[in-house]
Amino acid sequence: MLTKRIIPCLDVRNGKVTKGVRFQNNVELGDPVAMATSYSEGGCDELVFYDITASAERRGIDIPMVEAVARAIHIPFAVGGGIANLDDMAQVLAAGAEKISLNTQAVLNPALIAEGAKAFGSQCIVLGMDPVKTPGDKRFPSGYEITVRGFRERTGLDALAWASRAEELGAGEIVVNSVDADGTRQGFELSLTRLIATNVGIPVVASGGAGTPAHLAEVFTTGCADAAIIAGMIHTGEYTIRQIKEALLAERIPVRTRW
After folding, report:
1. Which residues contact 96 (CB under 8 A, 6 or more apart)?
2. β-strands 125-133, 47-51: how paired?
3. Which of 33, 65, 109, 173 has the fewest Cβ atoms within 10 Å of its own Cβ atom?
């Protein structure tokens, strides 16, 4: 089994890290640079920042924040939210990010994935997808429909079909964030993650629902994920990155240690 990555997610709104359930009832948690520094020093493998209202508000990324994070940490990080063209991507990468996360804008303009991969390399282009369950709806053979603009709009796209298309266009990684599990801390949606991971040939990152180290062990084994995004379980201080990794090592799941 390849080494699994642990990736804290920092949802940013109005310059502050925030967390809610399915992007509702959000509570401010702190400064993104300070939190990024703490998690980096604590042993995480990567970080991801989502400007959770950029697409809905139709505006660009907070570049000064990206620059401040890049100065403070020394691990890879991805940035997403409102990135609509190659100029936006170039600005984010020049500010210090290693990866670009495309979600709403990729649905609106799928060619953006191919353009980004050609200009900057597939390793820089991450497809973020927010699928919601569609039980009994034959329009969606996978059982999931893609949503955009922070779960606010449905798209008519089948989740597996969209993941496969994104891979064909040049995406180097896919983050599968379950709308139904997001923020619940009741566990990842294993069937959804496994469905995508076993049908594409690029790394798949599970997101939405992490609450305990056991949930990560499940998504790495049963869910076939290459990496897992976590938020609430560490934002609250209930667990540290080290505690999570030590629990995974006890289950014989390989992770990187930096202590």
Report:
1. 66, 67, 69, 70, 71
2. unpaired
3. 109
Q: Which two tokens stand for residue 70?
A: 């890049």
pLDDT at 1 over 70: no
In angstroms, the CA 44 to CA 256 distance is 9
CA distance 92 to 89: 5
Q: Is 137 labeled as catalytic in the residue annotation?
A: no
Quickly count: other Cβ atoms within 10 Å of residue 125's Cβ. 28
21 neighbors 184 (Cβ within 8 angstroms): yes
Comparing 21-25, 39-43, 159-163, 235-239, which segment has the lowest mean pLDDT?
21-25
Q: Long-range CB contacts (< 8 A, 24+ apart) of 241-245?
A: 241/6, 241/8, 241/39, 241/42, 241/43, 241/44, 242/42, 242/43, 243/213, 244/6, 244/213, 244/216, 245/6, 245/43
What is the C-alpha to C-alpha distance for residues 183 and 76, in angstroms, rounded to an integer? Answer: 24
The answer to whether the beta carbons of residues 164 and 109 sit under 8 Å apart is no
Cα gap 49→77, rounded to integer Å: 8
Residue 71 C-beta-side C-alpha neighbours within 13 Å: 8
Tens of pLDDT, residue by residue over 192-242, are 999 999 999 999 999 999 999 999 999 999 999 999 999 999 999 999 999
Which is the CATH superfamily of the domain at 5-250? Aldolase class I (3.20.20.70)
pLDDT single digits (tens) 33-82: 999 999 999 999 999 999 877 766 777 788 999 999 999 999 999 999 88
Of the residues 11, 45, 88, 158, which is catalytic?
11
Whether 11 sits among the annotated catalytic residues: the reply is yes
